[in-house]
Known about the structure:
Blueprint: E1 6-12, E2 17-20, H1 22-28, H2 39-44, H3 48-62, E3 69-76, E4 82-94, E5 100-109, H4 111-133, E6 137-142, E7 147-150, H5 152-158, H6 162-165, H7 170-174, H8 186-190, E8 197-202, E9 208-220, E10 223-233, H9 235-257, E11 261-265, E12 271-274, H10 276-282, H11 286-289, H12 294-298, H13 304-315, E13 320-327, E14 333-345, E15 348-358, H14 360-374, H15 384-394, E16 402-409, H16 412-419, H17 421-438, E17 444-447, E18 452-457, H18 462-476, E19 488-495, H19 502-539, H20 544-560, H21 565-577, H22 587-590, H23 598-604, H24 607-616, H25 625-630, H26 651-654
Antiparallel strand pairs: 1-2, 1-5, 3-4, 4-5, 6-7, 6-10, 8-9, 9-10, 11-12, 11-15, 13-14, 14-15, 16-18, 16-19, 17-18
Helix pairs in contact: 16-17, 17-18, 20-21
Amino acid sequence: MEGSDYGVWDWDIKTNVFYHSRQYNVIGGYSEDSHPKSYKDWMASIHPADRGRVMTELQKHVDGESSIYTAEYKLRQKDGSYIWVHERAKATERGGDGKALRIVGTQRDVTKERNGQDQLLYQKKSFECLFENSPEAIAYFDKNEYIITVNPAFTKLFGYTYEDVKGRHINEVIDPFKKVEGYLTFAQFEKQDLKFKDTVRYDKYGNPIKVLAKGVPIVINDKMVAGYSIYTDVSFMKHAEEQIKKQKNILESHFNYSPDGIAHIDLNFRVLEINNKFTELFGYTAEEAIGKTIDELITPKNQLQEGIGINDMALRNQKIEIDTVRQDKAGNLIDVCVRGGSTIVDGKIIGYQVIYTDIRNRKEAEEKIRYLSYYDKLTGLYNRAFFEEELKRLDTKRQLPLGIIIGDVNGLKLTNDVFGHLEGDQLLIRTAEILSEACRKEDVLCRWGGDEFAILLPHTDKESVEKIGRRIYNLCEKPSDTPINISISLGYGIKQRATQSIKEIIKQAEEQMYRNKLLEGKSNRSHIIDSLQKSMYERSHETEAHAKRMKDLSHTLGKGLNLDNDKLNELSLLAILHDIGKMAIPDDILGKPGKLTKGEWEKMKRHSEIGYRIAETSPELIHISKYILFHHERWDGTGYPQGLKRMKFHCYPEL
């Protein structure tokens, strides 16, 4: 025994004396004279957690209740540290009452063994904890692939209880309806083909479950004795992948089919990618665009500073939305709205996206709206709203002297009433052309109202204003293709000093225009009548000589009836102008060589009513207007336009 690793002790219970072998002392770290010498000393050296158990076992053997005493406990060495020891003893002498009088035993240091066991136990418990609490479904099966046990995650994923699967073949459990074409097998284990496999397995009810499947062999002495099948439910991952893929497809669709041109650029503003609309808008293919800076590609030279400013805004992660122009491959300028922002991944800017919206249609619409807001649709001149805006701009000291001309077109109402509003519009259009021709480039000409026009003349003195007025009058005297020759009454005012009110200057111009219109009224009306009469002679078969003969015959008949001179003058005027209304009859009816149709005749008969309206517009002719109306009435009531009989109308028409 002395040559072994066992320590020997001999306890004489009668005398309470202990004998210890040298190895016993070595195990406890004691010297020959310092080892425990009594039962009390022995018990004191046992770890408190084990002491009660050891005393119980030892007492049972002393009392004869056990044939052999055996115990394993922690023993305190002399230096105070603890080791694990295994003791085994037997009573060698007992008294008449059966109680032990002497016990001999052995003690062995089993610390290494016990630590190894503890480690194994720890690993076992750790594995069991991992197995039971793993979120992955795990099945433990034998070498024939029959299930030994499964973890809770397995029963939850596949819908079984532990009792449902124990002892069954693994493939029968994860594919109850034989839908799987290939399984993980021991043959694959032997080939080390143990990688995760993205596949489908089925639950108890045949519902498909998307999983990652992996096999793990259990190898003892280089031999596979069992294995694990591990199933990771990736349904949510697959759903997430599908959602990501869907979102990616949506984003790609938005990118490729966006109505706006889009460019993805890097941190150096070089093009990484462009969409179809970018190519359509600017004419560059992806191969031509990628690698170039966005400004190098489409920013006009005179806009480069603006482009740098936009880049700075992008660097500062500011919102970008600017209406500007960019240049296509052919050099054409395109109105665009530039918008953009940073491309941020995981909180880091990795590049930028620039969006170009073609706003040419919008710009055209805005220009059209602006045109309609500031231009007269009929004449193409500025309207009164624009005139008033310009008046504010030009009403400054540096624009003095500032001249204003107000003009009123003569004969517009007559033209509208007799020839219709289309001819009236032509009269206004032709007047606008005359005024435009008479004005200078820097002058602001507008249609002031219905038949009124206004002109702003910056840096213009009285002499220059009067010169422009004379030029307008001279241009009006030229022949025109309007039914009546153009005539306009003008008035002007000049702001000489900054202290003068521009409203007062306009008022002066209007008052002068109205005075001139009043003074020129008779002359203008005479001019209009002469113009109408001349046009009538030019358009119909009736000549000036014919009119003179009619005048002479009427005058002779009037004398025969003893009419006074005033009546004779009325009769002569009527003879000349009785057919003045034919001015408004279409040429194809007036000049038709054959018989008129019923419809044409009805139009022809309107000339007496038209002539009446013409005469009503002139104070000099109003006294014969009713005679012009009735000049085709007959004694028997078969005339027109009212079918009057004898004595219902004045005698002049009869004559």
